[in-house]
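Reminder: ligand-aware prediction takes two inputs, not one.
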Amino acid sequence: MTTTAPPPARPTAIPGPPGHPLLGMANELRRDLLGTMLDGYRQYGDLVTYRIGPGWKWLGPPAVAVYHPDGVRQVLTNPQVFNRRTAGFETLTEMFGEGLLTSDGDLWKRQRRTLQPLFTPQRVAGYTDLMTAEAQRLARSTEADTVVDLHELMQVYALRVVGRALFSDEVDDVATELQRLVPLASDLSIARSMQIVRLPLAAPTVRNLRFTRASAALYAIMDRILARLADRVDTDNDDLLSRLRTARDPETGQPLSPQEIRDQALVFLLAGHETTAGALTFTLHLLGHHPDIQDRVAAGGPDLVRAALLEGMRLYPPAHSTERRAAVDTEILGRPIPAGSPVLVSPWVTHRRPDFWPDPERFDPDRFLGERDRQRPRYTYFPFGGGPRSCIGEHFALLEATVLLSTVLARYRVESLDPQPRVTPLITLRPAAPVRAVLHAR
Ligand code: HEM
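Here is what comes back for the chain with protoporphyrin IX containing FE:
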């Protein structure tokens, strides 16, 4: 008797929610990005397809979200295959220019090489005194037993630290304007990136005018800061700005153009404070709901403070998701991904997988101590991304945040007044409303 071997299984399409016939999942993702992605993971698993728009071939392949850590590793560690030429990064470039966050290819490589030495653990440690002084200043100036907005306080702190460390300047005067502009600029960028057909910015539509006005207002703030630092002759300074001014292209010897300096400075000003402020806000909020854990952390020294921060960023990762585009036909977790596919990864979802994070919604800093911490596979946790384009400010942010938490917890007992904060996933994760707390003197 002869048997015929079954034909080799053809890889099936990656499943996903069907969505609206013409819009696909555009509305759901726009209305509730994080909830829609988490539902997608729960229903379909490690890889999920999201069609955005009507699915006509000429609009390109659908987006694929990758929720399994092995797939996240593939995406983040292969920048040639999964690059930044995505709608999201293109609109960010239109809004904030070609700084380190948005540039790609050789330009990015040169920029990263120039700036990396400023962010080594050793260089960053040099900022400890400045961070401590700013944390103490904030703790001293906050009144005990009154209601405060943790987000507002943390934004003030993070902006002062970035201003002093990167520009050797006090940037308090731009804080209010930035607090208004950053969410607006993020919102406009996301809305533009999700348009199925994007008109050039020069087309005088209402949306485009709002977009270009927000971008111009951000650059105006940056120019004000740069103008007052223009004639500072301070050869001892090795801050970001001095480095940008003295940087030379290793091949051509050319300095950066004034436009390149503005772009770079703006990206650092924004990327350097929004994310850390969010991480601190949510961590303090969580500690304020768990008095027992808070007392342990306050008395437990740097390792426990760091564990609380890492756990805060697990539940509320400031960079909740990011995207890439497949440059060529490729595969993820053995499934075919056509060239041109937008590819999403999301710490928000992967950090909540019950197979890697038992009882995922529970705030438990012990996850980041001892054996449990050492045994965790790498890409189950990636608040700072990974691969060559991981966050250049990681050491800076961790130091800045642990200094603030230690200082505040040494002086105050934090009592959170709100239940779980509602979040808005703009470019970074932001609380949708003030995060109220009372600080009681210890
Ligand atoms: C808790 C705080 C922070 C978090 C969670 C965070 C997260 C991230 C993530 C996930 C990425 C990679 C994005 C991607 O792969 O698409 C990134 C990139 C970046 N971050 Fe951060 N960040 C933080 C603080 C900072 C600080 C303090 C600075 C500057 C002082 C900074 C500057 C940047 C820059 C310039 C990039 C682009 C790096 C490149 O592409 O070469 N970040 N950040």
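The first strand starts at residue 47 and ends at 50. The pocket of protoporphyrin IX containing FE is lined by residues 100-101, 112, 267-268, 271-272, 275-276, 279, 318-319, 322, 383-385, 389-393, 396-397 (CB under 6 Å). We will return to this case in the review session.
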